[in-house]
């Protein structure tokens, strides 16, 4: 009996939810409003410009052991079963010649902390942890502060 009551109540809540959603959008043209501005369904908003990654940008860490932000574009850099574009510059073998930072020894460690002869599968998909930083202005104010020890 209790179970039935709960079911009935939640179905009721669902119907109320649907009705409310309809009321909030009373037959308008419809569109999407976001922090990047509003656009209506029947007009095509021009595409945003590609983001720039200034060569001289210096990206500091906000907390200890943070995966460093990527200061350059990663457009069309393939990371797949067949190829890892990032390693063509960042591996220990290639870093010096390419003038890139070499990946640190942690990238060669497995989860038992054994150092492997090649990049650990845990660290193969670089963009899982590292993200590129463009010179994009924050869309909303951000009061985040870096940890005390890095200020
Ligand atoms: C063509 C060579 C090249 C490729 C490919 C490349 N990088 Fe880089 N990367 C560099 C160089 C050079 C730097 C040093 C900073 C600079 O000059 O932009 C750098 C800097 C970085 C840094 C910052 C290191 C630090 O010490 O703060 C990270 C993180 C990074 N790259 C990650 C990546 C990832 C992830 C990929 C693949 C999606 C990638 N890179 C592909 C050349 C490359
Ligand atoms: C599981 C998360 C993770 C993955 C995946 C990962 N990294 Fe990192 N990376 C880190 C962290 C955390 C650091 C900073 C601490 C350290 O060196 O371990 C770092 C540091 C770096 C640095 C700076 C090294 C230095 O000495 O300053 C480079 C360059 C880098 N990573 C490149 C890469 C590339 C290229 C890949 C893909 C092959 C990759 N990382 C994959 C987490 C990751």
From TrEMBL:
Q: Fetch the InterPro entries from UniProt.
A: Multihaem_cyt_sf (IPR036280), NapB (IPR005591)
The UniProt entry's GO CC annotations, sorted and at most eight, read: periplasmic space
Q: Name one GO molecular function term.
A: metal ion binding
Gene3D superfamilies membership: Flavocytochrome C3, Chain A
Note one Pfam family from the annotation. Answer: NapB
Q: Where does heme c 2 bind?
A: 107, 126, 129-130
Return the protein name.
Periplasmic nitrate reductase, electron transfer subunit
Kindly indicate where the leader peptide sits in this chain: 1-21
Which keywords does UniProt give here? Electron transport, Heme, Iron, Metal-binding, Periplasm, Signal, Transport
Which residues does heme c 1 bind? 72, 86, 89-90
Cell compartments where the protein resides? Periplasm
**Family per similarity comment:** Belongs to the NapB family.
Q: Which GO terms describe its biological process?
A: anaerobic respiration
Indicate the quaternary assembly: Component of the periplasmic nitrate reductase NapAB complex composed of NapA and NapB.
Q: What does this protein do?
A: Electron transfer subunit of the periplasmic nitrate reductase complex NapAB. Receives electrons from the membrane-anchored tetraheme c-type NapC protein and transfers these to NapA subunit, thus allowing electron flow between membrane and periplasm. Essential for periplasmic nitrate reduction with nitrate as the terminal electron acceptor.
């Amino acid at each position: 009996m209790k179970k039935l009551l709960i079911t009935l109540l939640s179905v009721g809540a669902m119907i109320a939810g649907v009705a409310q959603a309809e009321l909030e959008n009373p037959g308008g043209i419809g569109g999407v409003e976001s922090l990047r501005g509003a656009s209506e369904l029947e007009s095509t908003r021009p595409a945003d410009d590609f983001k720039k990654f200034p060569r001289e940008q210096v990206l500091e860490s906000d907390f200890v052991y943070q995966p460093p932000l990527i200061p350059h574009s990663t457009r069309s850099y393939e990371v797949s079963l067949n190829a890892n574009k990032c390693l063509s510059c960042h591996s220990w073998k290639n870093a010096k010649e390419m003038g890139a930072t070499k990946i640190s020894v942690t990238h060669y460690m497995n989860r038992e902390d054994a150092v492997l002869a090649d990049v650990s599968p845990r660290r193969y998909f670089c963009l899982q942890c590292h993200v590129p930083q463009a010179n994009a202005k924050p869309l909303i104010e951000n009061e985040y502060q870096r940890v005390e020890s890095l200020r």
